[in-house]
Specification:
With 458 residues, the chain is an alpha+beta fold. The chain is built from 15 helices and 18 strands. The strands form five sheets. Strands 3-4-6-5-7-12-8-9 form an eight-stranded mixed β-sheet, sandwiched between helices. A four-stranded antiparallel β-sheet has the order 16-17-15-18. The protein has a two-stranded antiparallel sheet with strand order 1-2. Helix 2 runs antiparallel to helix 13 and helix 10 runs antiparallel to helix 13. It comes from Citricoccus alkalitolerans.
Length: 458
Amino acid sequence: MGHQKRLTAVGCVLALAGTALLAGPTAAAPETSETSATADSQALERSLTAAPSQGLQTPFEASNGANWTTVDEAQAFLEDLDAGSKRVALQQVGESVEGRPLNLVTIGSPAPESQEEVADGSMILFNCSIHGDEPSGREGCLQLARDLSTTKDPAWKRLLNKTTVGFIFTNPDGWEADTRENADDVDINRDFLALATPEAQALATVMRDWNPDVLNDLHEYGPREFYDTQALVLWPRNRNVDSTIHDLSERMVNDYTGAQIEANGMTSGIYGLLVKDGEPFQQVAGDHQARILRNYTGLKHITGQLTEAAQGPVTPEEENDPLLANRRAVDVQYSSAVGSLAMISENRTRLARQSAQAAERATQAGADQAGVVYFSGQDNMLPTTSDGAEPHPMCGYQLTEAQLSELASTLELHEIAWEENAEGAVVTMAQPGKTLIPLLLDERSEYGLTEATPLDDC
């Protein structure tokens, strides 16, 4: 399907349970209330129809899905976007293991705001293929960035006036080598506690400094029997995630991104669930691990999700035409991205408010030593061992001088504060990072960084 036809196909809108599902750059007007934002969104049944300015296409589009865009081609494409549109800002936020730039693209109208302005306002961030051998997310990001930078639709321009849209390309070394891992053979998506890789450090820094309200993490998966929809989506499952952030994330998956994918003619399911005759019967993935970005996002009080496009054919038509499968995978990513844009366009104020309030709730719970700290289990599964949960939370942790020296820079990236004392430093639970602290510092945490001393009295 050619580029213009694909945009037209993605341009349908479906109203589901009172929620408008957009399908191409159309977005909500500046909101005086959540109701007015939804009404404006529902009125936008005509999405982007004008061809991109200057006919700018990705190599993937130009080849009709035969050739994935390379690292160098993407760099040139993004530089062209930056030079050709006042709405676009391209900046380097780090370097990969092999020294390639880690690019953050921000888009706003009439021009992108500064990092300080964005942090105090509204932002949605797309993580564009953290695994180097999963190219469709990158392609979807490149196409959507182009479309947002060139659309003349006034409604989308109103969205960009209120919300900054960011795209980060996290693994250029794996992209170049066509490997899941980075150049040090590390899966970056298992590094969001240790933050040992420069790539995870860069993304954690963006999350800390730009303060996004929504994050959509784009991946691919290998379909098989009972696990063969064209797309899979999932919210954070870690039990320490604030309940409101968890529920907003699940709502985004069910009512926006998954529904948008289906509205555009593709099948969608929940990541990690095997399904037979329409009924899930076994969970095989999608667990609680805080070191995975999907869960880390929720623990940072950000409404977030995972999107997985089926890698390879899942229908007879795709079996007969591999390029159709490639194009469909990109359509999945684009559709999911549009769904999450609809989520923020209709719920911008609530998302920002709940993110801030989740941080306040975590700080208060830490001060009160309230609730339960979970080291295992997930939202649909309780821990099965005594070490899996702590019903009498500690007030903080004592670090030795050696532990503080080793972890100080990592704690700063996580936005976790400490107070030095004669033994080293105390990390109090009375701070927004309360949801992360035990997972980083407790000996019961499977992927913890050290074995600090829990304190009952601070």
